[in-house]
């Protein structure tokens, strides 16, 4: 009698998926990819907030180092003076300038519609101006949507500021906790390398902060003096806007000129030309003379690479991405240099020798 039972090791035939099952599998995969992309985008914004908080902590510790060197105090009193003194100076400035700025903001809000109408009238007098007005009218919806996306953030502007400030204070109070916690996950043979990377990043971020802070102060002072001489209204507000937008390289300077030039057009065309020159000269002096001297320790980033990083970061994360594009790019360049470029040069020393003998193009 023959055994008709199926052996245990015999593979079972694969069950074919129906068309509907294949469709649902595809929909599930696409939905999973969309969820992963959305989570990655939110996580990227969170990483940017961590970077912003790190910059705040770097500022407090850098100022604490200066106080410690000048006064010979201990670390704790120097840091208390660094944090407390910074908030005290900010409070005093707001106390003395807050009322004046509030009045000028109200004045600017009241005169801005008339200023825009006057600028449109001036532009309509020339063929080029008519083309510009036509383009703005045709694309006003797109411009509004772009601006709305630019200022959009994961948790809202106030929420992001709240999170960044508290993270910055936590990083300032106990930086060793987070640094040591990060170093725990690093393999023992790589700890020295990552300590070198962290030190380079620290020096680079300090250089960027020094240049930005000095640029903000100088732009505010120079524009306040120049616009006051020209008799432009709302001088403090215009200078403050330009100083804050100085944090955004390349694009910030152009955007800051718009309200000042529009107000100058209400006076006369010659005044608008002079005000434009004041903006250009002040931005040029600060960007090409003062900032490079202060930021001599930061990586020399190519201008084209900086603009590309700003466009990409602005598309991904709006205003916060554009503000942090330069320090983030500096960190990426340092990581690439330490983890990839130097390793290649060590493994292939002939590349360094050959690179020195490459003839320059005529």
UniProtKB/TrEMBL annotation:
Matches recorded under InterPro entries: AI-2E-like
Q: How does it sit in the membrane?
A: Multi-pass membrane protein
**What GO biological process, any one, is recorded here?**
transmembrane transport
Location of this chain's protein in the cell: Membrane
Kindly name one Pfam family recorded for this protein. AI-2E_transport
Recite the UniProt keywords alphabetically: Membrane, Transmembrane, Transmembrane helix
Report the GO terms under cellular component. Answer: membrane
Q: Where are the transmembrane segments?
A: 23-40, 46-67, 79-98, 150-173, 213-241, 247-265, 272-295, 307-336
Q: Which family does it belong to?
A: Belongs to the autoinducer-2 exporter (AI-2E) (TC 2.A.86) family.
Protein known as:
AI-2E family transporter
The species is Mucilaginibacter gilvus
């Amino acid at each position: 009698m023959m055994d008709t039972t199926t052996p245990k090791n015999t593979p079972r035939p694969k069950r074919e998926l129906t068309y509907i099952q294949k469709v649902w599998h595809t929909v599930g995969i696409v939905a999973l990819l969309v969820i992963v992309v959305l989570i990655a985008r939110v996580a990227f914004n969170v990483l940017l907030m961590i970077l912003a908080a790190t910059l705040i902590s770097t500022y407090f510790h850098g100022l604490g180092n200066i106080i410690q060197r000048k006064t010979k105090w201990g670390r704790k009193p120097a840091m208390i003076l660094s944090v407390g003194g910074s908030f005290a100076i900010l409070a005093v400035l707001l106390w003395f300038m807050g009322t004046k700025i509030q009045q000028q903001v109200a004045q600017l809000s009241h005169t801005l519609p008339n200023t825009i109408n006057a600028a449109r009238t001036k532009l309509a007098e020339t063929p080029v101006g008519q083309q510009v007005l036509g383009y703005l009218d045709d694309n006003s919806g797109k411009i509004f949507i772009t601006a709305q996306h630019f200022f959009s953030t994961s948790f809202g502007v106030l929420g992001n500021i709240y999170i960044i400030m508290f993270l910055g204070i936590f990083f300032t109070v106990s930086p060793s906790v987070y640094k040591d916690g990060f170093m725990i996950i690093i393999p023992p043979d790589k700890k020295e390398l990552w300590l070198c990377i962290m030190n380079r990043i620290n020096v680079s971020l300090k250089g960027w902060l020094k240049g930005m802070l000095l640029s903000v102060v100088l732009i505010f002072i120079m524009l306040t003096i120049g616009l006051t001489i020209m008799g432009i209204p709302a001088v403090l507000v215009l200078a403050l806007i330009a100083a804050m937008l100085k944090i955004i390289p390349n694009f910030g300077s152009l955007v800051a000129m718009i309200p000042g030039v529009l107000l100058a057009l209400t006076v006369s065309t010659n005044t608008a030309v002079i005000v434009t020159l004041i903006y250009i000269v002040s931005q040029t002096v600060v960007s090409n003379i003062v900032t490079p001297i202060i930021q001599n320790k930061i990586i020399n980033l190519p201008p084209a690479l900086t603009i590309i990083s700003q466009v990409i970061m602005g598309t991904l994360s709006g205003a916060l991405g554009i503000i942090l594009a330069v320090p983030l790019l500096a960190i990426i360049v340092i990581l690439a240099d330490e983890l990839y470029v130097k390793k290649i040069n060590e493994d292939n020393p002939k590349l360094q020798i050959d690179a020195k003998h490459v003839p320059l193009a005529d």
